[in-house]
Specification:
Elements lengths: L2 H30 L2 H46 L6 H83 L3 H13 L4 E5 L2 E2 L8 H9 L4 E2 L6 E3 L1
Parallel strand pairs: 1-4
Antiparallel strand pairs: 1-2, 3-4
The protein binds zinc ion.
Zinc ion binds next to loops.
């Protein structure tokens, strides 16, 4: 193979490294993070906090109503226990008991609403957890595949790099330097002669230039774009 042809092969290997490295980055990103799963987990945590808060409200309200009932029972015992004889006092106690029972009714209604809210919160938490677990299972099934793909890509890149090192070791230093300098400026740095024109910038070559490209030992460059042209 000509020196220019070797540089073309080097360029092909470099392209494979770039391509596989990009795919490896994608695979690594898929392993590292999962925005949709994170969103669902956040939602489940929020639903859990809301459910806990709702349960706390119910417990507080229950305690409050129980205190009122206790007070009503005591008042009731006192009222009908026979220890209070004063009619004025009895009447006062009756009014207090009545007012207390009305408050208990109101508080009972509020408690019922709080319990319904707690039930809804619990249902939302179950749904959020279910949605998270469902996606986790799908992802777990795919995680193995992604890990395998990443491992295969790493092995492929390693292989390309060894191949490149072997090829580069047999090239002349000036050829390698020319290739490296060109590829930083133009991509691709090495092109084919296409219908007697440059495969990069497409300017037509004179017959003498075509002959030079076909026969020259050293890499021939396009007079228009500087690229290395191989036949
Ligand atoms: Zn050119």
């Amino acid at each position: 193979m000509s020196r220019g042809g070797d540089l073309l092969r080097l360029q092909e290997i470099d392209a494979r490294v770039v391509h596989d490295t990009a795919r490896l980055r994608d695979a690594e990103a898929a392993i590292a993070g999962d925005p949709e799963l994170e969103r669902r987990r956040r939602q489940a945590r929020k639903a859990h906090r809301e459910q806990t808060a709702a349960e706390d409200s119910v417990a507080t309200a229950e305690k409050h109503v129980e205190g009122l009932r206790q007070r009503a029972r005591e008042l009731d015992r006192h009222l009908y226990g026979g220890s209070v004889r004063n009619p004025q006092e009895l009447l006062g106690m009756q009014h207090e008991l009545e007012a207390l029972r009305q408050r208990i009714d109101v508080e009972d209604d509020r408690l019922l609403e709080l319990m319904q809210a707690a039930e809804s919160a619990a249902a939302r938490e179950r749904d959020a957890n279910g949605a998270t677990v469902e996606l986790e299972q799908v992802r777990a099934g795919r995680a193995g595949e992604v890990l395998e793909r990443a491992a295969a890509l790493r092995a492929a890149i390693d292989q390309h790099e060894r191949e490149r090192a072997e090829l580069a070791a047999t090239q002349q230093a000036t050829d390698l330097a020319l290739y490296e300098r060109l590829r930083r400026r133009v991509q691709p740095a090495v092109v084919h002669l296409t219908a007697d024109s440059c495969g990069g910038c497409h300017i037509p070559f004179a017959n003498s230039e075509v002959r030079h490209i076909r026969l020259a030992g050293e890499p021939a460059q396009c007079s228009g774009c500087d690229r290395i042209v191989v036949s």
